[in-house]
Amino acid sequence: MASIAWLIVAVFVVWLAVKMAGGLGSLLSSLLIGALAGWLAGKYMRGRGFGLLKNILVGIVGAVVGGILFELAGFRSAGLIASLVTATVGAIVFLSCVRWIQS
Asked: In this structure, how many other beta carbons lie within 10 angstroms of the beta carbon of residue 22?
């Protein structure tokens, strides 16, 4: 069951990344930020990461969630560090929701 959920997330994230990237350079930087944010969120929530692919997926979903939350709060992220913070906070919120749904 968990594999199917990760596959659905992966398909959604790839579609979203292609829509939002606007070029190969942007896509690669998004993947790098996603991997770092997913790893950081995994370290915070579990004490370790999830592996490269799941880190990227969690980080990119976290970037979307964090972007929505920060926009609702009136903040805008500009720059690499701000994007990483936004994605990490969003990934932590995402993982908290997943943990809450699973319990």
From this structure: 10
